[in-house]
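Ligand: uracil. Inputs:
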Amino acid sequence: MGNVFVLDHPLIQHKLTYIRDKNTGTKEFRELVDEVAMLMAFEITRDLPVQDVDVETPVTTAKAKVLAGKKIGLVPILRAGLGMVDGVRKLIPAAKVGHVGLYRDPETLQPVEYYVKLPSDIHERELIVIDPMLATGGSANDAIHSLKKRGAKHVRLMCLIAAPEGVELVKKEHPDVDIYLGAMDEKLDDHGYIIPGLGDAGDRLFGTK
Ligand code: PRP
Ligand code: URA
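Predicted complex:
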């Protein structure tokens, strides 16, 4: 069964509070999401394998380490996932980026896929699916199915805030996927919004409403 990690680093928690605050405007919201995404990437990549190498310092030869194993792929779910990509790429600049476009039908709350563009070698990459919100879980669930259908073998999911319903759905449908969260919130409201949440992530990132 996939693991669920709530990343309780004080900086992540502190910044998340300001992200939730309804008085935080678009510019600051975007900057904070970028910063939290970078901090989360630091935590999420803790278990990446390394291998020993020798490196010539100006003084002598040092036994050192470099990353080994599979290369990384980032897959933001459009549109709100875009707000977290640059933050992650600051730490993993060589990561290739694929995109999955999904929106949630406001009536049915079912995800509707409208765009998929992925690196050709996703089957040999460690993929990190990125979306600020895991609400009903429909969007993340569909995005991961979509990646697996196209050959993905290793997938992790990172979200700022989740509702228990979304976590349960992804765990049930994708027991091989580890889930990394900034916070696990209480519940969903009747419109599928996370309570207490942060409102509509896409609208707050891009200033639409
Ligand atoms: C939001 C969010 C997730 C989805 C979460 O996107 O970014 O993708 O809702 O909800 P779910 O877990 O119930 O599927 P939205 O559909 O509002 O599209 P947008 O990013 O284009 O605004
Ligand atoms: N999508 C959002 O942007 N916010 C929520 O609370 C739920 C889904």
